[in-house]
Design brief:
Elements: E1 7-11, E2 16-20, H1 26-39, H2 41-44, E3 48-54, H3 59-73, E4 76-77, E5 85-91, E6 101-106, E7 115-118, E8 121-124, E9 133-136, E10 140-146, E11 149-152, E12 162-167, E13 171-174, E14 177-179, E15 193-198, E16 201-206
Helix pairs in contact: 1-3
Length: about 210
């Protein structure tokens, strides 16, 4: 079998799809993928990967592949993850003055190099790893650790907020306001926290829902 059929790269105006032949071992697939990307590094650099399919990869193998694609070749992972969507509903107002609108619940971990965007609110049932990005026109809730980039109110909604069980983002944005995590890890509190714009800056405080 030709080496060209072990790993197939197909591009369109949306992005690049990677097919890994399921008849081959993971090590062979990884090596062949690296060779293909290396042979045209300048062409693939900065490209957006929208799917990785074919071979059924373990979570560890998928992490390694996405890490190689992102860190070695500076490619952007923006896969469709509909299989992990729990629900998308209209929900009622849960905070005074803020109409929640359309909300998408996603049960997955956003890994390094992955970028998830949505027109409404995003609820991530999992973690956002360093190097991962979540961008929502509405609010963002992470029911886990937020250690990547989060951008709520991406279309300029200054009433948007970010909530996480463990808020440790590499960068936090709400509308056009940007904040970064402190360099001193002693300032990090491992409790649910809420980030909102107050007095033109992003303020972070413990999240204590009303009883």
């Amino acid at each position: 079998m030709s080496s060209n059929s072990i790993v197939v790269l197909k591009g369109n105006k949306v992005g690049l799809s990677i097919y890994l032949n399921e008849e081959f071992d993971y090590i062979d697939l990884k090596d062949q993928l690296i060779k293909k990307l290396e042979s045209a590094r300048l062409f693939f650099e900065g490209a957006k990967v929208i799917s990785i399919n074919g071979k059924n990869l373990t979570a560890e193998e998928k992490d390694e592949i996405t890490s190689i694609i992102h860190s070695q070749f500076n490619m952007i992972i923006e896969e469709k993850i509909e299989d992990n969507i729990v629900d998308e509903v209209n929900v009622a107002t849960i905070q005074d003055g803020i109409d929640e609108g359309m909300t998408r619940y996603i049960r997955t971990t956003i890994r390094s190099g992955q970028c998830l965007k949505y027109e409404g609110n995003l609820v991530i049932i999992g973690d956002v790893n360093p190097g991962g990005e979540i961008i929502a026109e509405g609010n963002i809730v992470v029911m886990g650790a937020l250690r990547g980039l989060a951008h709520a109110g991406s279309k300029g909604n200054e009433k948007a907020f970010v909530v996480a069980f463990c808020l440790q983002p590499t960068q936090l944005r709400i509308a056009n306001v940007i904040a970064r995590s402190p360099d001193n890890e002693e300032n990090i509190r491992l409790i649910p926290e809420l980030a909102m714009i107050k007095d033109c800056i992003i303020a972070i405080e413990p999240y204590l829902p009303k009883k």
